[in-house]
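worker-03 picked up job from queue 'complexes'. Input manifest follows; two sequence lines, order preserved.
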Amino acid sequence: MSIPMTQTGSDSAARARQLRSLKAGDTAFYWATRLAAYAVLLLLGGIIISLIIGAWPALKAYGVDFLTTQRWAPSAQPAPILGGLSPIYGTLVSSFIAMLIAVPVGLGIAIFLTELCPPALRRPIGMAVELLAGIPSIIYGMWGFFVLGPFLANTFQPWVIARCAGIPILQDIFAGPASNLSLFNASLILAIMVLPFITAIAKDVFETVPPVLKEAAYGIGCTTWEVVKNVVIPYTRVGVIGGVMLALGRALGETMAVTFVIGNSFKISESIFAPATTISSAIASEFAESDGLHQSGLILLGLLLFVLTFFVLSAARLMLMRLEIKAGK
Amino acid sequence: MNLKFSSLVSTAVAASVIMAATVPVQAADITGAGATFPFPIYSKWADAYKKETGNGLNYQSIGSGAGIKQIQAKTVTFGATDAPLTADDLKKSGLVQWPMVMGGIVPVVNLEGVKPGELVLDGSTLADIYLGKIKTWDDAAIKKLNASVKLPSTPITVVRRSDGSGTTFNFTDYLAKVSADWKAKPGVGTAVEWPVGVGAKGNDGVAGNVGQTKNSIGYVEYAYAKQNKLTHADMINAAGKRVSPTTPSFQAAAANADWANAPGYYQILTNQKGDGSWPITAATFILMYGEPADKAAATEALKFFGWAFDKGDKMAEELDYIPMPKPVVELIKKTWGSDIKSK
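worker-03 finished. Artifact:
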C-alpha cells in the first residue's frame, strides 16, 4: 500500500515539476513577447527624443519663424538662413494632388472589382493593382525621370499651358515653362504609388457591405450607380476614409521617387509645372553634405514630417477603429 | 486590412538576404569615400589594379563633404574631396591632403541644331544665366557672343546639383570670380542658395537631366559630358580667348598652379590666366590621416595611389582627366614619406 502511495506521491511531484516547468516556459514566453512589444515603444520614444535633440539647435536659432520662412540658404554668411516653408508646402501640395488623382481612380477600381467585374477578370486586375504596391519606389522614380518627365514636358504640359492661357487662376496654376521635373510630375508618381493602398482597403471594406442591403436596393429598382452611391459608400465611408488617410501617410513620407522627379527647388511657385521640393527629398539630397546648423535644420524638417505623418496615421487608425466597432454591432 | 502582397514582400526579403550572403567579402580591399567628380577614373584604376595585384578598391562616390565626414569618422581609409581643406583645417584634424588628378568642368546645353562646341559663353553670361537674369536663349548677351548660331526664343531651363558637391564648389568659385553679383548673393560653396533652376542628384543626374530636357543648360565634369554625348559649350577664358574643353586646355590651366609652395597642396584652378587655359579646371584631392589607426590598410592605400601615379596616366587621359605633372608626383610621394606614419 505504501509503495503505490509513494508512487502516486512521486507521480504528483513529477507532475507538479512538469507543470512548474510549463508555467516557467509560459512566463518566459509572456515576458519575451512583452519585451518585444515594449521594444517598439522604446524605439519610438528613442527616435522622437533623438530627433528633438538633433533639431534643438535649429529650433533655438529659428523658432517659429522656421515655419513661415521660405528662404533656404545653407551657405549664407555668417550663419545659414533656413526656413522650412517651401518643403512643407511641397510635401502637402504634392500629396494633396496625388490624393486628388488617386482617390477617384482607386475607388473606381474597387467598385468595379466588387460590383461590376466579371469573375474571370477579378483576380488578374486585383493582382495587377497589388503588384503596383510591390514595385520599389526607386523604379517609379526612374520611370518618372526617363519616361513620364519627357512626355509631360514635351507633350502634356505645353498643351495644358496653351489651353489655360488667358483664363484667370488656371493660367497661374498651369503656367510655363514646361519642365521635366516638377511638382506635378511628383504628384502623378505619388498617385500611382498610393493607388494600391486605396484600392486594397476600399475593396476589403466594400466586401463588408451585407448583400441583403444591396439586394434590397437592387430589388426596388436601383441602378448600380445608385446602389454604390446610396448604399455601399455610406455604409463604408469611415473605412474608405481610413484607407485614404493611410495612403496619404505614405504619400507624405515618400522619398526616393519624389527626389528623382520633383526638381529639388526651394521655391514656392504658383505653377504646379514648376520644380519644388518636399521634406523628405530635401533631407535625402542634402543630409550627406550638411553639418552644424544646416544638418540640425534638416533634422527639424524630419521632426515636422514625423509629427505630420503621426497625426495623419492616428486619424486613420481612429476611423478604422470606429468602423470595426460599427461592424461588430 | 489584408494586403496580399505581404508574401511577395517576404519573398523579396528572403531573396535579398541570400544575395547578401553570396557576395564575397575580401579583407584586402581598400576603402575610400567622397567626391563623385573623380569616380570614373578611380573605378577604372581600381579595375586595372585588381587585375594586377588582386587587391580591390571599394570607393563610394557619395560626395566631397560626405567623404570628409567619413574619413573624420574613420570609417574609411581615405577620403576624397574636390573642395580642398585649408592648411589650418588639415593641421587641426591631423589629416594629410594631396591632389590626385585634375579635370575640367564644362557647361552642357541641349539646344536643337546646336552641335558640341558651336555655342560659346563667357563667365559673366554664364553667371547671369545661373542668376536668372538671362531668361531666354535669344538674350542679347548670348547673341552677341554667338552671331552665327541660330538661337531659339524659348526660356532657358537651368539644371544644377541638388546635393552638396565639390563640382558645385569649383563651379560657384569660378562664377564668384567672374561675377560680383554671384559673389554677393549665392556665393561659393558645395551647396548654395540657387536663385533658379531644377536640382538633380550627382554629375550623372545633371547629365541625365540636360540630355532629357530641351533648351536646358547644366554643368558637369567633362567625362560625364563625353560619356553621355552631351553638347558642351566653349568658354571665353580670363585672357579673353575662346577655348574648348580639351586635354591641352585643362593642362594649360593646371600648369599655372604653384603646387610646391601651397601648404596642404591648397590650390583652386578656376579662372587661371594664359591664352589656352580652360577657365573651370579643378583638381580633386585625397585625405588620409597622418597617423592612421589601421596602418596596414593605409600602406595598402598608399601602394594603390603610388601605382596610380606611376601607371595610371594613360587611363586618366583616356577618360579626359589630367594626370598630375611628374615633379608634383615626386613632391607628393615625399609628403607621404614624411607625413604619413603608415609603417
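worker-03 released lock.
DSSP finds twelve helices and two strands in chain A.
The mean pLDDT of chain A is 88.
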